[in-house]
Amino acid sequence: MLTEISEILTAISETEPELLVVVALILGLGVASQVLADRFRVPSVLFLILAGVAVGPKGLGIVTRDIFGESLSVIVGVSVAIIVFEGAFHLKAEKLREAPTEALRLVTVGALISFVGTTLAVRFLLGAGWSVSALVGALLIATGPTVITPILAVVPVRDRVAAAMETEGIVNDVTAAILAVVIFKLLASQEVNPAEYLVNFVQRMSVGVFVGLVVAGALWYLLTKVRTPGGWTPQNARLMTLVGAILAFSLADSVAKEAGVAAAATAGVVLGNADIPYEDEIEDFKGDITIIVLSFVFIALAALIEFDTLLNLGVGGLLVVVAVALVVRPILVFVSTTGKRLTRREKLFVSFVGPRGIIPASVATLFAIRLQSPEPPTNAAGADILAGTVFLVILLTVVFEGGFARQIGEKLQVIPMRVIIVGGGRVGRALAERLEERGENVVI
Questions:
Q1: Would you call 177 exposed, middle or buried from its count of C-beta atoms within 10 A (0-12, 13-18, 19+)?
Q2: Cβ density class 146-168: b for 16+ within 10 Å, e for less
Q3: Are 242 and 289 in contact (CB under 8 A)?
């Protein structure tokens, strides 16, 4: 962690003073995007990605790839650690019980259908090689807390729907990142043994989960068992969890690439469900920090979108987006949510609101740069297809599915009533039970 922070500070100190102005501008646009999102009741990611395009090379030309240089990957990595940890911290066991079977299927069967379906779409609609198609398929498994959390903040769907979507976003972020790295690594080593893919995937996932458990256990012990002269303060608890999230990410990532995402998610889930002091203060603090880093990452990466690369995909690129969003996504959702826990309208909502987020964008950028380098595996054409397809899917799904999520929810009537029942007697409890069976959110 100290090494990564040192790299960021060194990179900033060695660059021109304009970098600080650019960073201040990005943060200002991030706050403005959040204010506009609250004002118009739409997810903030819509305004963030539009702001990134506006200040990027094809817009005002303020934010370019050269501004950040090699430090961008480090900044994105630390930001992803905070975002994933914060999303996982909110994933409570009680919420998971709302739709346990559906959530489990979405992160297993659903992830597999997404991977296979997207891979086939890229292979046959764009004519890409199987290796590049598999990379795109792996990356686009992820929806992620970076896009799902802002959507659920303005579209208060029923708890069972939110539980399934949040679980899918957090777990599939981890799955997508690790699976993509495994495929890329084996592509570089020219390995074709399917067993190698599984072994590498399990190794990275295990490293991430183990480090996350160790860091979460250490933080829990410090906050609950270690006594200080003045006692733990809310500020100390908040800062310790922030450092813990970054530490878990950096330690795991230094052992196995992209295992840091699994570590941050694991630490977040464990601490979020542990009985630690000042939990509400930690949630508020992490939420504020997440808004800042989310703003920076989305605007910075949106500014790096090469529109020439997107346009070169032609009609085939648009067909891939249609296949991913309107064919593969509904199929995986309806297969994963068989049963009566979710209504048909709720299944349609989950089907049509599945935008992709930061993990695919950041990892695709790194892979595209690597594919364009003289070192193997060299594949400049594959790099353009990889980056172009991933960014096109992200751009269109965020704009349409994220931007119109509230309208989709209202049209499908999946936003529940908010009912307050005064009095907890037999009649009040019976009424509350009937309303909860209908999926309404009830407070007695």
A1: buried
A2: bbbbbbbebbbbbbbbbbbbbbb
A3: yes
The chain-wide mean pLDDT, for the chain, equals 81
Whole-number pLDDT of residue 351: 94
Asked if 281 and 187 count as a contact pair (C-beta separation under 8 A), the reply is no
Backbone φ, ψ for residue 58 (5° rounding): -85, -5
Phi/psi at 80 (5° precision)? -60, -40
Three-state SS string over 236-252 comes to HHHHHHHHHHHHHHHHH
pLDDT in tens, 373-385: 666 665 666 778 8
pTM above 0.85, yes or no: no
Q: In the block, which residue shows the tokens 């021109």?
A: 16
On whether the CB atoms of residues 180 and 139 are closer than 8 A, the answer is yes
pLDDT (tens digit per residue) in 52-83: 888 887 778 887 777 776 677 777 778 878 87
- Phi first, then psi, for residue 129 (nearest 5°) are -70, 160
Task: Bin 129: left if φ > 0, else alpha if -120 < ψ < 50, else beta.
Answer: beta
Count CA atoms within 13 Å of residue 188 on its CB side: 13
Q: Look up residue 401 and give its DSSP letter.
A: I
Longest Cα pair distance anywhere in the chain, in angstroms?
Answer: 74
Q: 352 pLDDT exceeds 90?
A: yes
Yes or no: say if 420 and 443 are a contact pair by the CB < 8 Å rule. Answer: yes
pLDDT value of residue 23: 81
CA separation for the pair 241, 289 (Å, rounded): 12
Closest CA to 363 of 230, 161, 176, 205: 176
Nearest to 436 by CA among 417, 414, 408: 417
